[in-house]
Specification:
Blueprint lengths: L2 H8 L7 H5 L5 E7 L2 E12 L7 E3 L5 E3 L5 E9 L6 E7 L3 E13 L15 E8 L1
Antiparallel strand pairs: 1-2, 1-6, 2-5, 3-4, 5-8, 6-7, 7-8
Length: 133
């Protein structure tokens, strides 16, 4: 069994580390926006954060969580049109599997059909970020 398959069986996207995503820039993720709506986002960048000691923190359910030693941010380019709201979404990738990820709009980039590249234009693509801290 391949290492990727093992990770897919034992982990979900929300628990993976930066190395899982580095080889998937340019690949597509399906984001479930609602029960009847899914959008496709393309992973355009994986950006490492500063390495730091792990820290424990309390969770609402009474358990304890731990920060990542190597935080990172994923940047996705969304489809043309208005952005989806900042929220937690179920994401699926053909190789990595699925999981819940908190995604927020980050910026816009000129889409091929943008009429006014310097102002709000629904033909501009939205760049989203998912921070793994």
């Amino acid at each position: 069994m391949s290492q990727e398959k093992t990770h897919r069986d034992s982990d979900n996207i929300s628990t993976m580390n930066i190395d899982h995503f580095n080889g998937h820039v340019g690949s597509h993720f399906q984001i479930k926006v609602s029960d009847d709506m899914t959008c496709t986002m393309t992973l355009v960048e994986v950006r490492p954060g500063k390495v730091r000691p792990k820290q424990k923190f309390p969770l609402p359910d009474g358990t304890t969580g731990e920060t990542r030693e190597q935080p990172f941010t994923l940047f996705f380019e969304g489809e043309d049109g208005a952005p989806i709201a900042q929220n937690s979404y179920h994401c699926t990738h053909a190789t990595l599997g699925s999981g819940t990820v908190f995604i927020s709009p980050h910026s816009r980039t000129k889409g091929e059909d943008a009429k006014h590249p310097n102002c709000h234009d629904h033909s501009m693509n939205v760049i989203y970020q998912a921070v793994f801290s």
